[in-house]
Prior knowledge:
By secondary structure, the chain is of the alpha/beta class.
Amino acid sequence: MHAHADPTADLDAIPALVAKARARFDEGHTRSVEWRVRQIEGIARLCREREAEIEAALRTDLGKCHIEAYSAEINYCAHEADEAVKHIRGWMKPDRVSTPLVAQPGSARIYKDPLGVVLVIAPWNYPFQLAVAPLIGALAAGNACVVKPSEVAQATSALLAEWLPQYVDPEAVVVIEGGVPETTAVLAERFDHIFYTGNGHVGRIVMTAAARHLTPVTLELGGKSPTVVDGSVDLAVAARRIAWGKFFNTGQTCVAPDYVLVTRDVHDAFVAALVAAVTAFYGDDPQQSPDYGRVINPRHFDRLVALLDSGTVAVGGAHDRDDRYLAPTVLTDVAVDSPVMADEIFGPILPVLPVDSVDAAIAFINARPKPLALYVFSGDGATQQAILSRTSSGGAVINHVVMHLAVPGLPFGGVGESGMGAYHGKHSFDVFTHHKAVLKKPTFVDPPIMYPPYDASKIKWLKRLL
Length: 466
């Protein structure tokens, strides 16, 4: 475990590290706009000055190619930082709201208060982005922050522990490395908000720990994000976009298309288009492709390989445990109750299931837990609207996948079992902010009508005012 890049820190040091962050917040250091801007500009500099080191760590952990590491991790966080610096003064300004007659004369405003000391627990699949992007929101909102990187992505965790304290206030931003014992020790401390990205099992553990201190939580979870394809769309374009989103980061993406429901009339043509897209992207031997990553570790590799028996392999299926390589794979003839349809796949396996109609696809989706994302490929506006209005998901994209994450103005988060709370852009600022209601009234007017005793005349006027 590292804290402040200190390899000698141990479990017993965690309370003192959290207390140090709280002392920094309590002293008022984190509240000024100047401090906030300085921290976020530091993160932007970290992304740009240490791009090569970050990319190397991501390649070690996940085999990420240059453009995946740059676009989805390094540059993504730099853009989030730039967005926050650009808008932070506007986000911090109190919002004025109208004051009803009964409260006049007076002015009503919503003040934006930092919460205090917040905890960000990051996962391994986008280990840099999903630690740093929430941190940007926490700092923009004026909080101190404890960051717990994923121990599964060891190289990126070590990089964050080494470099973050050199680019931001090391008293207010504490990086604590480690596995389950360290995470458990961190969760025993009192925080003012906990932001967790990962799976539902650990999400329940986080929520239980938070309940001891009545700490609010944001849970960014996952689930089986469905994709619906009908015959009115360009199948070649749909297949390319779905294959790109599915096999990006070797399928280890919380909003990756988990499975496809395609209307029966175009099932075979769509599968053929998918096969063509995979071959066009990664060649006949994707193991040699410089653009294709690796499964994070042997445990997940074994889990994924066991799912290959759930259907007929249309393309892919090859695997090499020593290399953590599993080819981009499309499965057909998949039974609804097969293992690959039970839980989020989180790897490069895409089941394609035929459905009789769009209505059947909607019923299939609604019979399962609410997903983090839903994707609709259709050229028909009525079909698009029907799926959007009759299903529930954290977010949705029509005729593409994953791209809603690239829009800073859109909140990103789940619903139901796919999570609670949302962030990105201003929504990141809001999730780490207390919106405080403030009414300000003068004393030069103090109408006696407000006070007892209430005679008939007062009551009549008060009923008109209230």
